[in-house]
Amino acid sequence: AHLDRIAAVDPQVNAFLHVDAETTLAQARRVDERLAAGEELGPLAGVPIAHKDVFTTTDMPTTAGSKILEGWRPPYDATVTRRLREAGLVILGKTNLDEFAMGSSTENSAYGVTRNPWDLSRIPGGSSGGSSAAVAAYEAPLSTGTDTGGSIRQPAAVTGIVGMKPTYGGSSRYGLIAFASSLDTPGPFARTVLDAALLHEAFSGHDALDSTSIDAAVPRVAEAAREGDVAGLRIGVVKEFGGDGYQPGVLARFRETVELLESLGAKVVEVSCPSFTTALPAYYLIAPSECSSNLARFDAMRYGLRVGDDGTRSAEEVMALTRAQGFGPEVKRRIILGTYALSSGYYDAYYGQAQKVRTLIARDFEAAFHQVDVLVSPTTPTTAFPIGERADDPMAMYLADLCTIPTNLAGNAAISVPCGLADEDGLPVGLQIMAPVLGDDRCYRVGAAVER
Ligand code: GLN
User: Fold this and answer.
1) CA distances (Å), 34 to each of 29, 42, 290, in order?
2) 307 Cβ partners below 8 Å, 6+ apart?
3) Active-site residues: which are they?
4) The domain 1-452 is classified under which CATH number: 3.90.1300.10, 3.40.50.2300, 3.50.90.10, 3.50.50.60?
5) Would you indicate the residue range of the signal peptide (predicted)?
6) Ligand 1 environment, Cβ below 6 A
7) Which of 129, 198, 285, 346 has the most CB atoms lying inside 10 A of its own CB?
8) How far apart are CA 386 and CA 401, in angstroms?
9) If you take atom 5 of ligand 1, which residue's CA is the nearest one?
10) Does the pLDDT of residue 243 top 90, yes or no?
11) pLDDT tens, residue by residue, 283-315
C-alpha cells in the first residue's frame, strides 16, 4: 500500500531519492519467514520505514543529497539501518535532504527540492525534508532523520508530524555520513508520539562502533509516551524565544498549548536562558569547522564521482575539479567558512570563542533544569515558508533554527510535536519540548499530553 501511495504522490512531493519495490518486497518476505520460524522481532516487525539518505544501506545507494556521492554503494549498513533491519522493519527507500544535511528547506539537495504535502509551493523543512514529507504525505508511517542544528525538529514542525532529537550519543552515528560530528544525532519521525517512541527504542542504545555513544540504559520513552501524565511536572517557558521575528499564529498556538499543559496539572514558570541568543552564531562557527574537516575525505579517490581523470592531470587537479563540480554552493560556503575559522591565527578568535559560548549554553540548560523538568518554546519562528523565498539569503535560512540549536550545542534531548495550525495560513505549528541529557522520556511524556 505504501509503495502504491509513493507511486501516486511522490511525482509531486519528491520525498524519495531512491525507491526499489523489488528490494522492499524481498525484505518484507524475509520478515514473514523470520516470524513464521518463531523469531521474536519486537513491536515494529513488518512496518515499512523510509531512511534519510545519509544512513548507509548495503542494498540501496547512499548520496547524502550530493553529486559527489552519485553512484556510490556503501559496503556496510549504518548501525541505525542494521538495528532496524534486525527488528524487522522494511525499507521503502531513501529520502531527499539538503546536501550533507546543510540547510533548513531541502532546497540545497543536488537532486531537486522536496515539496510540503500541506502546500506544494512550500518547503517541507530541512535538512531531513524528504523524511518529514514522506511521513506527512502518508508515503511512509515512519522515517529516520538526523538533527545537527534542528534538522529533525524543524521539518517535523512545518509538516505537522512528530520529530525527536535524542540525547547526543544516545543513538549511534556509525554509518551516518558525517556533517558536524559533535552535533549530529539520528532520530525518529512519526505521526504519533508513541510511534516515534517505539522507533526511538528500536535503534537506540550503546554502540561500540561509535566512540561518542553513551553506555547507559535507553530512557523508557515508549512507557512515558503511553502514560503522558504531566500532573506536578515543572515546565519552563524560555523567555528568550518569542516576540519580534515570530509569526503571530505560531505564538498563539504556543501560548494555548502551554495553557493546556497547565490545565493538565503542570506548573508553568518563565525561565531565562540568556546565552541561547548567542547559540546561532556559535553554531555557524562550530558546524562549518567540523564540516570542513569531515568533508576532506571526498578526495575523488575514495568515493563516487571523479572528474577529469584522463591521464593528463595530477591527483590534486582531479581532486579540485571533482570537488568543484561535486559540491553545491552551500557546502562550499561552509567548507570555506570552517577552514577560515580553524586557520592558525584565527582559531582562538573564532572556533575557540564559539566553544566557550557552547559551554555557557550548556550551563544555562543546567541552571534551568535545577528549576524545571522541561523547557518549552515554539520549534521554529514561522510556519513553512514558500520555496525560493530564502534560497538566496543564507542568514534568513539560518534563522529557521533559532530555537533548536541550543539543544544541539549542549547535547541534551528535544522533541517537536504538532500543536495546531496557524490562523494566517492554516499551516502546522510545532511545540518544542527540551529535556536534560538522558531525559528523553520527559519529551515523550509531555508530547503525549499535548497530542491528547
Ligand atoms: N539548518 C541547520 C544547518 O544548516 C541545521 C542542519 C541540520 O540539523 N542538519 O546547519
Assistant:
1) 9, 12, 42
2) 300, 318, 321, 322, 324, 325, 326
3) 52, 127, 151
4) 3.90.1300.10
5) none
6) 101-104, 127, 147-151, 179, 287, 401
7) 129
8) 17
9) 149
10) no
11) 999 999 999 999 999 999 999 899 999 999 999
